[in-house]
Amino acid sequence: MTNDPQSHYPERTQTITRTVPIHGDGITPENAPEHNALVNAYRALIKSKGISFPTSFEFVGKLGRGRQGQVVLAIRRGARGCVTHHAVKVYDPSIYLSSAQYWEDMGRIASQITELHSMRHPNLLSRGMYEEVKGVGFVQMEEIDGIDLTDLLTDKKISTALKQMPASEADRLSKTIFHNLSSGYAIQPGVAVFIMRQILRGLEALHTAGFVHSDIKPSNIMIDRLGYVRVIDHGRAVRHGEDVRILLGSLGYMAPEAHKRLASVTQSDLFSVGLVGVEMLRGEALITDTKTSEAEIMALKEDIPNRLHDLMPDYVRENETLMNVLYSLLQTDVADRASNAQDVESGEAGLAVVHRQLAQIGKDMEYDRELQEFMTYMVDPATNRIKRPVASA
Ligand SMILES: Nc1ncnc2c1ncn2[C@@H]1O[C@H](COP(=O)(O)OP(=O)(O)O)[C@@H](O)[C@H]1O
Ligand SMILES: [Mg+2]
After folding, report:
1. What is the DSSP string of 83-147?
2. Cα 210 from Cα 241, distance rounded (Å)
3. In 304-376, where does DSSP find H-type helix?
4. Which among 81, 161, 225, 389 is placed 20 to 30 Å from 4, CA to CA?
């Protein structure tokens, strides 16, 4: 359904040739009056803290802000007093050069939601619904009551979370979930492997359905209140092998072939999982300087297999199986890289083996339970929802 006569959902084509500008790239909009009106409608909608048509949503909190717009916590008031909570992502037209481009991309999102609608998996965000109001696109999604992986990778947020707990519990969790290195907190291998395995299971479902997520990175991984890991933000998912001539992912996490604007393949996601894994295990991103040029970022990535040993803390380095999985994920050439998510997750030399080895030496634990306990202390008693930690000094 569409509420705006100007909106249109173009047919999906095999080759996407337009260039959708990436947020913050210093683009200059074409300033067409129509586009200005659309951008104003978006701003008014965000400011009014709600949507009143076709059903009413009241924006009651902010959940996040990505490159594409804002994600808000919204109360949906349906017929006969039916009140439900949702995450609503409102797409910002100001990052596009024209309303035509914006609606073209919205059409892609709408058709992709249609295609992904039948997919259900515990490690994927469940199906959303695309709507438009005054031409401004938004998606109503299930709200995940939890944190995203950036919260577990930011030292200052971890400190905030630990400070909210009784000292004995903070002390315990800071050892079971985290490893306190001199440079800050890293995530314990068992927990990092657990998170990677869950991401891979979600990806296995997406890949089997023929899709590449294209934007695996910490802010697109959420951990819910029960410790379940969910891959979110399928907005850039494309078909395996689809010839996409635009930059889909995020520079810091995309696979080398994506830098070369080659067709996206499912193994491109596996490279990104490798980078997320390395970041958890060393507690620090490999690529931190956002000002680094794309060519430099790519060179850094191509050099990872040579540097991986030195980049890792010693207790990770000693784990041969884990290191081999990381090497296989981070190969520059797709042909040399691990071939599928299932093998990496539970194959003969996959991450499941690392968990079994930890069990043999008595170092395993109920990983989801530990994460759940960590989050118990973030529940805001006033709302009974997770209050995500803010970075404290
Ligand atoms: N369904 C959701 N429930 C709770 N928080 C969410 C949800 N979707 C997104 N978020 C939060 O909002 C942030 C941005 O959302 P995302 O879908 O990744 O948007 P973008 O495409 O702009 O990156 C996420 O990193 C996450 O912290
Ligand atoms: Mg995102």
Report:
1. EEEEEEEEE-GGGSSSHHHHHHHHHHHHHHHHHHTT---TTBPPP-EEEEETTEEEEEEPPP-EE
2. 9
3. 304-311, 314-317, 320-329, 341-346, 351-360, 367-376
4. 81
Q: How far is CA 213 from CA 35, 97, 267, 290, 295, in A?
A: 29, 25, 10, 22, 23
Instruction: Give the atom of ligand 1 at the shortest distance from the alpha carbon of 219.
Output: 25
Nearest-ligand number for the alpha carbon of 142: 1
Q: Which two tokens stand for residue 319?
A: 């784990």
pLDDT tens for 244-286 read: 656 667 889 999 999 888 888 999 999 999 999 999 999 999 8
Q: Please, which residues bridge with residue 138 across strands?
A: 90, 131
Q: How far is the CA of 315 from the centre of ligand 1 (A)?
A: 33
Could you report the per-residue pLDDT of 155-165, keeping only the tens digit for each? 999 999 999 89
Decide: helix, strand or coil at residue 41: helix
**Overall pTM surpassing 0.85 (yes/no):** yes
Q: Could you tell me the distance, in angstroms and rounded to a whole number, from the CA of residue 219 to the centre of ligand 2?
A: 6
Its CATH architecture, for the domain 146-376, is: Orthogonal Bundle (1.10)
3-state SS class at 307: helix
Nearest to 367 by CA among 188, 222, 220: 188
Backbone dihedral angles phi then psi of residue 189, each to the nearest 5 degrees: -50, -45
Please give all residues whose beta carbon lies within 6 A of any atom in ligand 1, as ranges: 63-64, 66-69, 71, 87, 89, 125, 141-144, 148, 219-220, 232-233, 235
Looking up tokens 């118990």 gives 376
CA-CA-CA-CA torsion for 150, 152, 154, 159, nearest 10 degrees?
Answer: 150
| Ligand 1 atom with minimal separation from the 236 CA | 21
Residue spans of the domains in the chain: they are 5-102, 146-376
**Cis peptide leading into residue 54 (ω within 30°):** yes
